[in-house]
Amino acid sequence: MSIDVARARAETPGTAHVVHLNNAGSALPPQPVTEAVFAHLALEEEIGGYEAAARNAGGVERTYAAVARLLGCGTDEVALVESATVAWALAFQTLEFQPGDRILTGTAEYASNVIAFLQAARRSGAEIEVIPDDADGQTDVMALDAMIDGRVKLIALTHIPTNGGLVNPAASVGGIARMHGIPYLLDACQAAGQMPLDVNELGCDFLTATGRKFLRGPRGTGFLYVRRERLEGMEPRVLDLHGATLAGPDRYEPRPDARRFEYWESNVAARIGLGVAVDYALDWGLEAIRERVWSLGGWLRTLLDAVPGVTLRDLGAERCGIVTFTLDGVDPDAVKAAVGAKGFNVSVSRASSTRFDMDARGLAAVVRASPHYYNTEAELELFAEAVAALAP
Ligand SMILES: Cc1ncc(COP(=O)(O)O)c(C=O)c1O
């Protein structure tokens, strides 16, 4: 089934105001999401925060069910948190490393994850090793296989990086992780809402994502998936009275499910909105979304490739909806500002966000244009014209 773009736009008020090509940053939310958030805030105003949460408890439960449907997992394997970074850090911090342990990661790994590896390495003496890329610029699965030994204690991969069209072979990596029983932490922040995700096909033990990007949820939302078999004995660094019960004066018991990674206080309206966003994406269908987003990405590459002075910067055999490029003689920030003045929202992805990859390619920054299914081919054509007009 293909996407009804006219309906998608009618349900996305922002499309009347901007050409939003910053969905890898934070997408335009659809009306049902903002309505759900506003409605809960109005109820809080009317009857009080705790009382509103009690009345809308079903709305929050629905979010766990929606995320579980999105990922093909159980509701007991989902924790709702504030962002992809929080989800990722909560999972990573439960892992213990000894001197000489190896953490394997990809060249496209997100900077916050790498900072956490460096902290862990400094504290524990673990070593960080970057899996080489294959000729297409994606994680080389054969090279990974050859790197495995008894000292590998974690494989951590970014599925789709923040800085380009690359789609890493996350399921093949998962196959290797599972074969060797090595914990596998998948950063699916840019993949969630852009393509189908199934944790059993991916073979990951932990998956992290955010609400505001391709899922079109509220800001300040994210989720963590933890495989049931891994939950046993896994304790977050900090537990509160929501994640655990104080069973006696000197004894606590963590919750049996993934909600042990949550804390008591939360933005209930945003959590409800996240569930609506996930269900909204599921209603369109993740296959249909992928088809449209990736085909818009391909069309934008074709258009930009024809602009004199533009160099496309995307890697990978299969490319997603995130399009990155540079324009000869024009700083990426100047490109962003100039097209922004004409109503096009894009962003700039810097080396500091994906250091291994950008340094290896000698790139300081790239312009990032990331369409969603509600964008039109005509918008992309106007955008390419706006970029062409900037060429010195
Ligand atoms: C690949 C990747 N991982 C993680 C993050 C962090 O997400 P959040 O800002 O929701 O913590 C981003 C954000 O751009 C990202 O692109």
Automatic annotation (TrEMBL):
Pfam families: Aminotran_5. Residues 20-383 form the Aminotransferase class V domain. Its cofactor is pyridoxal 5'-phosphate. Keywords: Aminotransferase, Pyridoxal phosphate, Transferase. It comes from the Bacteria. Belongs to the class-V pyridoxal-phosphate-dependent aminotransferase family. This is Aminotransferase class V-fold PLP-dependent enzyme.
